[in-house]
Each structure stands twice: as C-alpha cells, then as structure tokens.
Design a protein that fits this description.
14 strands; five-stranded mixed sheet; 3 domains; alpha/beta; binds zinc ion; elongated; four-stranded parallel sheet
Length: 249
C-alpha cells in the first residue's frame, strides 16, 4: 500500500467531512492511481478543482500519485497568483452554454432571461446528462456532486446555494458572465430565440392594455409564446441591474 498526503483549500473543504477540513489527509492506495481518482474518492468533484500541486509542481488530473507524494488541491476561485501554474482547463468556453439538471429549473429560467443557451431536460439519466454536456460543450449545473464525477465531464459547476436567486448570483461571479449577457433575447420557458414581430400580426393574442400601448412584441421561434414589456419586465430589469450593474438592451 502506498500513502500520500492531501490538503484541500478554501471552499473545496465544503465537500469534506468536518473532521477532515483544512488539515492534511492521509490516503492509502494501490499504485498506480491518477490523482483525479483519489480527489473524487475523498468527495470532491473534479469539475470544482482548478489547480493541483503535486510536491509543489502543477499537474493534470490524470497524473499518477506515488508513495509519499504531497498533493495540494485548489478550487476555481483561489486568490493566489496562478499565472505560472498549469490550469486544468485550457480556456473557459467562449460563449458558455449550459445544461441544468431537472432540479434547477428556476436557475435555467434566469440564465435564459439573461440570454444564455440553457437546456434543462426533465427526464434524463445521469449518464445521458454527462454525455450531452461533453458532446455539446455545455457547462453542467447540478447540486448532485456524484453527477459531476462522471469522467467525460470537462466543464461542470456544483451549485451550492439552495435559492435560485443566490444560484444565479454565484454563477455570474464564478464564471464572470456579466460581459456576456443578452437579456430578453431567449424564451424563458423553452430556450428558443425571440424575434421581433409586428404587433398587427398577433393583435388577437394580446390583452387590451398591450394592444393600446407602444410596447414592442417579441415571439419565441420555438414555442410561439409572446413577450412584451409589462410590469414583470421592470422587475427583471431591476434584478439584472443588481447582478451586473448598468446594462442596456
Ligand atoms: Zn419558447
């Protein structure tokens, strides 16, 4: 049996039992074993890890661990200067797309409101979600850490917060999304793109007050739902302002 010492930093400790947090953890194993395997055996999904130092050298997830090694594991947000080190993922996905598990429907709605392509399938096995995330390069969002441990997943995010508003706030910060928002370009219900249409063509589907005012109408190219700027719109604008500061459509 070989033995190595692990230490997890910052919020990665949330995944550990209380008695193992913020201290060295001794792990016994049979060599050879990739460092990813030992990290996940301890309860931390690989998607939450940004940097691994093995005896002070930065290594990838598949690097083997040997007897006597010392492993330091850092989360995505760790305020040390990481520029000289090897990050586990080459680059962030340029225009991020998401795949939310079925328990995160309201978070998916917020992401769509902000213009991000977000799928949220109701009935899908974990293995299918993992495969879809990998195939379409979608960031998998879940509160199920076992799901994030699927090997094929390269970009995933464990959502700690129970409240959807806190969830979207966390994601905006963690993935630095504010510069990429396109509010009200996508259907909150089905993820379809919205298109501008002439009011006359759908006047029979509009409430009286909307027929009379000057608000522009958008229609979902998927489910044909109609959107206009009502009181709900004002509330959403305030919320977006609270997430990202000033913005304009
Ligand atoms: Zn729609």
């Amino acid at each position: 049996m070989a033995e190595a010492n692990f230490r997890f930093y910052e919020e990665l400790n949330d995944f550990l039992p209380v008695k193992r947090r913020k201290r060295d953890i001794s792990v016994s194993f049979s060599t050879p074993v990739p460092v990813r395997h030992l990290i996940e055996t301890l309860g931390v999904p690989h998607t939450e890890v940004e940097i691994i130092l093995l005896n002070g050298e930065s290594v990838g997830l598949d690097h083997p661990v040997s007897d006597g090694d010392r492993v330091s594991v850092y989360p995505v947000f760790e305020s040390l200067d990481v520029t000289p080190l090897l990050r586990l993922r080459s680059a962030p996905l340029r225009r991020p797309r998401f795949l939310a598990d079925a328990h995160l429907g309201r978070l998916a709605g917020y992401l769509r409101m902000l213009g991000f392509d977000t799928l949220c399938p109701m009935l899908m096995l974990d293995s299918e979600l993992a495969a879809l995330s990998a195939r379409e390069h979608r960031i998998l969002l879940t509160r199920d850490r076992a799901l994030l441990m699927h090997r094929v997943i390269t970009h995933g995010c464990y959502v700690r917060q129970p409240s959807p508003r806190e969830q979207i706030r966390y994601l905006m910060q963690r993935l630095d999304l504010c510069g990429l928002i396109r509010p009200f370009s996508r259907c909150i219900t089905c993820n379809g793109m919205l298109e501008h249409i002439a009011k006359e063509t759908v006047v029979d589907r509009l409430p009286e007050r909307v027929r009379k005012n000057r608000s522009e109408i958008r229609r979902c190219t998927g489910c044909r739902h109609l959107y206009w700027k009502g009181s709900h719109y004002e509330r959403m604008c305030l919320f977006i302002g609270s997430l990202c500061g000033d913005w304009s459509e």
